[in-house]
Amino acid sequence: MWRVLSRLHIGSAMTLAPATHPFLRRQRRSQGWGVLAGAAAGPAAPPDERVVAAVVRARAQAALLAAAACALALLGWLLDSEILKAWVHGHTAMKTNTVVGALALALSVWLFERRPRISAVLAAFAAAVGLLSSAEIAFHVDFGIDQLLAHEAAGATATSSPNLMAPNSAALLVMLGGAHLFLRSRLAAFGHALALLGFGLALLGVIGQATGTEHLISLGHSTTLSIPAAFAFVLLAYAAVFSRLDAGVARLFVRSGFEGLVLRYSLVAALAVPIVLGFCRTGLHGLGVDNQTAEWLYTVAIIAVLVGSAALTVRMLGTALGAFTAASDRLQAVVEYSPLAVVTLDPNLAVTSWNPSAERLFGWSEEELLGKPYPLVTDEDWDEVVAEAQETRMGSTVIADHKRRRKDGTEVVVQVAHAPLTAPDGGVRGMSLVIRDVTEQRQAEEALRRVNAELEQRVAERTAELTAANRGLQAFSYSVSHDLRSPLRALDGFSQALLEDYGPQLDETARDHLGRIRGASQRMAELIDDVLRLSRATRADLKRERVDVSAVARSVAAELALADPDREVDVQVEDGLVADADPQLFRVALQNLLENAWKFTRDAEAPRVEVAAAKLDGRAGFSVSDNGAGFPEQYRDKLFRPFQRLHATADFPGNGIGLATVFNIVQRHGGSVRAESPAGGGARFTITFGMEASR
Amino acid sequence: MIAGPILLVEDNPDDVALTLRALERNNITNEVIVAEDGERALALLFEEHLQPALILLDLKLPRVDGLEVLERLRAEPVTHVVPTVILTSSREEEDVISGYELGANSYIRKPVDFAKFVDVVRQVGLYWLLLNEPAPKMVPAP
After folding, report:
1. Pick from A393, A355, A350, A399: which is nearest to A375 by CA?
2. Which residues of B touch A487 (CB under 8 A)?
3. In a 10 Å sphere around its CB, with 0-12 CB exposed, 13-18 middle and 19+ buried, how is residue A680 labelled?
4. Which of A482, A494, A522, A588 to mutate to test the interface with B (most CBs of B within 10 A)?
5. Element of type H or E holding A570
6. How far is CA A364 from CA A314, A371, A417, A433, A570, in A?
7. What is the distance in angstroms between the Cα of B68 and the nearest Cα belonging to chain A?
8. Which CA distances in Å does A530 have to A30, A610, B109?
9. Choosing among A496, A502, A536, which should be mutated to test the B contact, i.e. which has the most B CBs within 10 A?
10. Residue A490 to residue B18, Cβ atoms within 8 A
11. Is B59 within 8 Å of B86 (Cβ atoms)?
């Protein structure tokens, strides 16, 4: 859509508003104008590749045609054929030196890019021929060069001296040869001028021939320009004008876009119409139509051609305008109903359009603002806007957040995408701003950030508290392990000492009491150890590794067998069991489970403990089961509470900490544990360790 | 049996009494010198130039604790090869690790059961005073 629009914008500089806007008189703001206006003289529209190709092709064809005309003339001189030399009976023949010079020029054109040096030598040669002949004509001298190639009898048609070329031909050889030479040098502009001048002169010759206008083709008593020469020179002059397409008129001619198109059409019309009509008029003369009628017809024909071309142009413009209107309507609709505010500014930063969303967002209507300065920028923000305008000038799109004031003074946070509006010649015609209201979004983000920060703060505080508490607990358990055991040792040690030293003096009851004191202190010591283990399970760092469950189970079972050699328990451990758990805590958990199984199978007939793969809540884990005493199902929930016992100490000694420790360890791993005691007896504990453990 | 005193670093008089009893029970006749805190132990070693055959070191001590005593005596040429056995109540993993890192020869937890304690003392004495070949005597420079 923008392509269509921009192609139709002829003359980009036209849209630049003059720097007379009142607010631009303020020096700081006029800075902004300067920034954008500086870009208006950008690079020209690029050449149209198709036209360039056509022109280059035509250039070669022109050289070829000119060379052909020359070759025919040369043949004519050899065969002494008037038709080949002059094309029309009773007209001047193309002189041999003209033929040679024009041939050299044609070759020079042909080789212009391929063999620049040879091409230059040929051009210089043609110019030299032209110069010598000019001197002969001007000073009425004969250097003996005219009859070098072929002899012409004296008194040939419209010829001042035998085989001496026409002054037009001499001048054209000099101009076109010179043009070729200059076009290669730093004086290319001069070369262009020569080529154009030559083209004009050659064109006059052709028109003169076409219309039979004597004074266009002959000067005084000198030789008249021949038809083949006029033909060859107009082609060669065309080739010279278009020998370089990167400068001069040629550059304008091959330009893409409407500008180049119009120029090309006009040029073709301006050249073709008089020539064709001129030939027609000559034809009418031949048919015996009198002069006045012929003039009338000629004038009418010219007017008809002009009207036709005007009609054609209007039609073309109409089509383009239709496309433009359609594109413009579509764009208008997009802008009109866009939920985003869309604003365009001219290089003075005055408003050129202001859509309804912009009105809703900021409060100003388009009518109030058209041609007025962009109202959303305060003096403080101006530097920022200039900076962004500068970026825009570089052709980039800038998206940024800004605080802006509405008409009613309230503040709004907007996200603005600045983009340059470029002219076909690459200059900047202004800028477009697409503006989104992000106030709520930013507020929400800000709130979220605040909440996050608070949360982090709170987490940090809690962590610090927990760390302190943990440290306290650590110190406490350290002290417990040291200080609580010492008195127990004294109790046990001195009871033993009493028994040993004064045993014989004590009666049975006294010795029994001392034995009880010793037993109690030892149980107390065990209790302390278990409590410490429980606390360690709660606070130790968790280092997950792949643990070989089968190996640990076998090793624990071996220890149990060693500590209690009197019992025989059948321990079955499935191979290949693994878990992802902290190795030390895992061992403590498994030890507790196996110790329990060992303990509670005491009264079984054939004690049996089994460690096997099992699933719990769809997760892989393993189970420890035994055929021992089991536990009453209704107390299952109490099983994992610390110090909770389901058996009398007299039946099975214990302190109720082991399973609490297991529970703690499993929970810290994010796993779960389930205890079952089937009606048939025995117990089964299934545990998982959070992360997927597999076989 | 290697002659020379045993340095018992222990602040709890009950434990001192029990240890002495256990040594006696095992017929270990070496002189036992008791330091009731780390400061006293260091003074005995470095000021009174005591050259013990074995050091039994408790960890939780007033003023200078057992690990610091260990560190100091391992840093001094006169004492750095003296067999030192940590004999303490706890088996906190941290203590065990630090003990070995600072160069303890052994880490033993005092059992509550006196019979077991007597057995521990017997084995320690047997090993360090009888089986183990000590390093040649380090004479402090004059």
Report:
1. A350
2. 14
3. exposed
4. A482
5. strand A570-573
6. 40, 13, 20, 16, 92
7. 17
8. 85, 24, 16
9. A496
10. yes
11. yes
CB-based contact A675:A618 (threshold 8 Å):
no
Counting as low any pLDDT under 70, the low residues of chain B are 1, 137-142
Phi, psi dihedrals of residue A492, rounded to the nearest 5°: -70, -45
Starting at the edge strand that comes first in sequence, how are the strands of the sheet with A683-687 ordered?
A570-573, A608-616, A619-626, A683-687, A673-676
- A65 falls in which pLDDT band (50, 70, 90)? very high
State how beta strands B6-9 and B54-57 pair: parallel
Determine the number of helices (DSSP H) and then strands (DSSP E) in chain B: 5, 5
Q: CA-CA distance, B2 to B133, in Å (whole number)? A: 9
Measured from the Cβ of residue B21, the count of other Cβ atoms closer than 10 Å reads 20
Identify all chain A residues contacting B60, using CB atoms and an 8 Å cutoff: 482-483
For residue A14, what are its two tokens? 């036209």
Q: Which chain B residues are closer than 8 Å to A518 by Cβ?
A: 113-114
User: Amino acid identity of A108?
Assistant: S
Q: How far is B87 from chain A (nearest CA, A)?
A: 12
The three-point CA angle A47-A51-A52 to 5° equals 65
Residue of A471, A483, A486 to mutate, interface with B, max B Cβ within 10 Å: A486
Q: Answer whether A349's CB lies under 8 Å from A22's CB.
A: no
Q: Give helix then strand counts, H and E, for chain A.
A: 22, 12
Residue among A478, A483, A522 whose CB faces B112 most closely: A522
Q: Where are the alpha helices (DSSP H) in A80-187?
A: 82-86, 96-110, 116-139, 167-184
> What is the predicted pLDDT for the residue at A279?
73
Dig out the tokens for A187 from the structure. 């004086």
pLDDT tens, A247-256?
777 888 888 7
Distance in Å, alpha carbon of A496 to nearest chain B alpha carbon: 7
Cross-chain CB nearest to A497 (options B21, B60, B88): B21
Strand partners, B108: B87
**Do A111 and A104 touch, CB atoms closer than 8 A?**
no
Band the pLDDT of A221: cuts 50, 70, 90.
Answer: confident
Q: pLDDT tens across A353-389, in order? A: 999 999 999 999 989 888 888 887 766 666 776 676 6
Q: Is the pTM of this model over 0.95?
A: no
Question: Can you tell me which residue has the tokens 């365009």?
Answer: A344
Contact A202, A217 (CB under 8 A): no
Kindly provide the b/e burial profile for residues A252-276, where b requires at least 16 CB atoms within 10 angstroms of the residue's own CB: bbbbbbbbbeeebeeeeeebeebbe
- Long-range contacts at A566-572 (CB < 8 A, ≥ 24 apart): A567/A598, A567/A602, A567/A607, A568/A607, A569/A598, A569/A601, A569/A607, A569/A608, A569/A609, A570/A606, A570/A607, A570/A608, A570/A609, A571/A608, A571/A609, A571/A610, A571/A611, A572/A608, A572/A609, A572/A610, A572/A611, A572/A612
Q: What SS3 state is found at A412?
A: strand
Question: In Å, how far are A583, A586, A607, A625 from A571, measured between CA atoms?
Answer: 21, 19, 9, 10
Q: Tokens 């690459």 belong to which residue?
A: A426
Going by C-beta distance under 8 Å and a sequence separation of 6 or more, which residues neighbour residue A12? A40, A42, A423, A424, A425, A427, A429
Answer yes or no: do B18 and A481 touch at CB < 8 A.
no
Tokens of A435: 């503006």
